[in-house]
Design goal:
The chain is of the alpha/beta class. Helix content is 40%, strand content 21%.
């Protein structure tokens, strides 16, 4: 009589542990914002790529789109000095960008939306005949405890739960097959 109860308990515990993404991570604090600056050349693989209105009508776009496109391109010299400095720093960074966490370190002349769009967090900058996408955005970073739960606690709990279900099934089968 104890064996079926043990098997059911192991299976129930296993299912509960495997369902941990439903109740973990428990939010421990407010996300902290980080402000990122990224520069990449405009090309086919980029968001403002060849088919983008930012390409100035090079691929047969009509005159109306061409005027909108030329409005979207900003000359490097027309950027505010602090924006030029941020552009150069991001362009020269090995990763193609940099981030700051202190709101006081943001560039006042740039916007930092969470979802950049052309003209708001995404500028097409023309410098020395080359065009670059200049992205600025706000990224919400989760507290370290939440990251630890997602990286360590959830996978371990799922694995232990899976093993408990297997153990429960083995105990139940052993009982049914006439084991001791």
């Amino acid at each position: 009589m104890r064996t079926p109860l043990a098997a059911a308990g192991l299976v129930a515990l296993g299912v509960l542990l495997m369902a941990n993404p439903l109740f973990l991570p428990v939010s421990v604090g407010e996300p902290t914002p980080a402000y990122t600056h990224t520069v990449q050349p405009v090309g086919e693989g980029s968001v403002a790529g060849i088919e983008s209105p930012a390409t100035d009508g090079e691929n047969g776009t009509d005159d109306e789109n061409s005027s909108n496109a030329s409005d979207a391109v900003v000359a490097y010299a027309d950027l505010a000095p602090d924006a030029r400095e941020a552009f150069d720093r991001a362009r020269d960074a090995p990763e193609g960008g940099f981030g700051v966490e202190d709101p006081a370190e943001r560039v006042d002349s740039l916007t930092y939306p969470t979802e950049p769009t052309l003209g708001d967090g995404l500028l097409i900058v023309e410098r020395d005949g080359e065009r670059y996408e200049f992205w600025t955005r706000t990224v919400e970073r989760e507290p370290g405890a939440v990251v630890a739960q997602r990286v360590f606690l959830q996978p371990v709990a799922f694995l232990v739960g899976f093993l408990a279900v297997v153990a429960g099934a083995a105990v139940g089968l052993r009982e049914q097959l006439g084991g001791e």
